[in-house]
Amino acid sequence: MQPQRTNTFLILLAVPVLALLVMLQATVGVRVALFGIKPNLVLLTVLLWTLLRGRREALIVAFAGGFWLDFLALTTLGISSLALVLSSFVTGIGRRAVQPTQVLVPVGVGILGALIYAAVYWVGQAVAAGSLRTLTSLPDYWGIQPLYQVAAMLFLTPWLYGRLSRTPDLGSEGGV
Amino acid sequence: MRDTTRPGIFGDLGVRLLILVLASLLLFAMQRSGQFQGIRAVLTRVVSPVQWRMMVETSRFADSLGEARRNRAALAEAGTLAAANEILSAENAVLREALAENERLREQLAYGTANPRFTFQGAHVIGRVLGFDPQDAQESLIIDAGRNRGLAVGMPVITPVGLVGRVSTVTDRTARVLLLLDQRSSVSALLQNSRVSGQIEGVAGGGLEMVFITAADPIIPSELAITSRLGGTLPQGIPIGQVRELVPASGTSGVRAAIEPAVDFRRLESVMVLTGFELEGNGANGGSGDNGSDPP
Known about the structure:
The structure holds 2 protein chains of 2 kinds. Helix content of chain A is about 75%, strand content about 0%. By secondary structure, chain A is mainly α. Chain A has one domain (about 10-165): Orthogonal Bundle (Arp2/3 complex 21 kDa subunit ARPC3), CATH 1.10.1760. The radius of gyration of chain A is 16 Å and the shape is globular. Chain B has 2 domains: about 15-115; about 120-285, Thrombin, subunit H (Beta Barrel). Chain B is about 35% helix and about 30% strand. Chain B is built from 2 helices and 14 strands; from the N terminus they run βααβββββββββββββ. Chain B has helices at about 15-35, 35-115; strands at about 5, 120-130, 140-145, 155-160, 165-170, 175-180, 185-190, 195-205, 205-215, 225, 240-250, 255-260, 270-280, 285.
């Protein structure tokens, strides 16, 4: 089975788009916050990319998106990139483990991706701050962070279902 | 068309993952050591105007959405208020109607108290027959009282304002009232100040005229015409109308007096039927009518 090819042009196009998404998230997201949690458009994009185009491209998109998140939010660089890369990688495994046409795949990916992202991000923040105190609020954060992603994934499920039905095989993705 | 898909620059997935994780950690380390400050400053200088403009535009857009939402809410509230207003208006109309009816009944009650010589039945006008029969040019009302309330043909029908007409037809639950305006209607009348007697008849076109009077009679303009007990079918003293003008009667030496009806026949809603009354002067009772009836 041939590994899925990487569309370099598409990835290059995604880099400025991700920057715009981060800015959109920082401006409009505040107005549509749910229980204090803003929609994470970059995470959503990475998860959708993972689902639809595979991890080979999604990992790069995740890194770029994480960079913009940290850069524009003036937080420690590298943390969001790491969180998104790992989130994309793990959810990609889960996505391959089940039939892509299953209706609940998008929702499961949303939950799993949000949890992994939150865990890595908060650990990274704790390390950056030199204190593990911030981790005490992580369980609460985990409880509500996936809400937006799950809601978004539910909203996108009909569309995703159609897309996944047409692209059931993403190739070997390098055997991982 | 150029093929934009080609093998990735990082090889297989594991290597790509490892490189990206290391790159992330490198960024993290550079940030922590302060080595990234220069690059970050340059990038910030480029991106900040874009970010600021985007913030302004999205805020403006969000505000306009909020404004639209508020407008929609205001419109919805206006719709709700309009619906409530319609309901309240309908209720208000019902209450006003009840109040008007209450006032009419009070007037009737007051009339009955002030005129103990009358016994009457109140009735609502439930229909109007205007020009029902072109040959007769009959003008009449249908009321919601009949034999069940003791009505009989010939009984006077009045309002607190004045004479309306007389019962012409009676059924079990309804009756027809021949209005004074009808050309077949004729009642004995008396001018209250000049004491001139005559007959008041309906004329074509809906007016009233007093006949059997002469130019020599000392009729006073605007004086009140009332019912007369002459003939024994009506009690005396019920207002009929006011003298408007005197008109020469064609072909005779007499005159006719145009009478402005006391009752506004167009606005009749409820009336009183005198089922019993005392003829002043001789103590006789009238108004019993002939009890004859025909179907409406």
